[in-house]
Design goal:
The chain is α+β, with helices and mostly antiparallel strands. It contains 17 helices and seven strands. Helix 9 crosses helix 17 and helix 10 packs antiparallel against helix 13.
Amino acid sequence: MARNLISSDLAIRSIKAGDPRTRLSDGDGLFLLLSDNGGSHGWRFDYRFGGKRKMLSLGTYPDTSLALARRKADEARRLLAEGINPSDQRKAAKAAQAETQQAEAREAQGLPPVSSFEAAAREWFEVKQGGWAPGYSEKIIARLENDVFPWIGRASVAAITPPQLLEVLRRIESRGVVETAHRALENCSQVFRYAIATGRTTANPARDLKDALKRPQPKHFPAITDPKRFGEFLRASDAYAATHVVRAALKLTPMLLLRPGELRAGEWSEIDLDAAVWTVPAKRMKRELREKLNGAPHLVPLPKQAVAVLRDLHDLTGRGPMVFRGERHHDRPMSENTINAALRAMGFSGDEATGHGFRATARTMLHERLGFSPDVIEAQLAHSVRDSLGRAYNRTEFIEQRRAMLQRWADYLDELRSGATVVPLRHRKA
């Protein structure tokens, strides 16, 4: 087909406003669409692809000269000869350019690439954090930011291999925090599963790495389980020179089986001394966010010794909201370190006793020494235990059994405090 029918740029510049022609053909599909109002003329390339007629814009004259228009038309003809639609090629090029510009803009703002592991992880985190307690979500994002993102954060989520991820986890493991490495592995696996669901990748390189890591050693809070030593603690606690609030907390912490945070943040509105019950709201319990918001409260039957301690303390702090008010700020609870600091001052090291460890002390002695059912003990500890039918125990169940148990436990503490003879377990009746 004839080409180069337009003699020169001069022929185009000579076109006057009102020219009756609508186009000026250069042959083989390329033509100049003339403007009828004296504006810029537009270059067009007319072609057929897939049996359909199509049109491609090649720019406007004079910004796109005759020579440049011909080079663009030649490139379009070359693509057609290769079976490629020039229009699709242009759209792909524009999309790639837009992606490059977006990537440059994200980099300028300090953001990770769209296809990166970090981008997928942060999107996953935004989706999931609404169902987590604030403290839990803070730990997860901090773990990713400190231990994962610096090494594979900007890598394409689809290109990360199991050995690459394992190398990241080995770095964590080498610090001696094996449990953290396992938690990071689980978080990464969740991110990869999210990336699969959102079309970013097709594989989860974290899936088979669990057995490649060291097995974490279970850690338990140090706890006194020897009755004689526990009696020494109770006597030391009675003699410890502390404020009235701290002395009361030292008496109630081993008696009520509450976690330190559940106890120290207690409010008088939760306690009914006449009914001898403490109703701990769900929001302060160790639960998932959904249960914190909508779950049942935890009922703590109060033995008579606990009621006596609380009545005495009420004279001091009862005019405010907090049972164990802070020394400086009476509208806030005492510090979370108060009980452990008192234990250290009394000569009990962190390897022997902690405020949280008294729960383990009670769990052990209530079963081994006093013969109470593990089901009742676990209910008082507010653990979600399942029976043989898979039914989770309701935290309000066993209320009468728990009331009897806690009263016997408080009496037993008085016995140990007074130096009662401890019968070795092997001499106890079965």
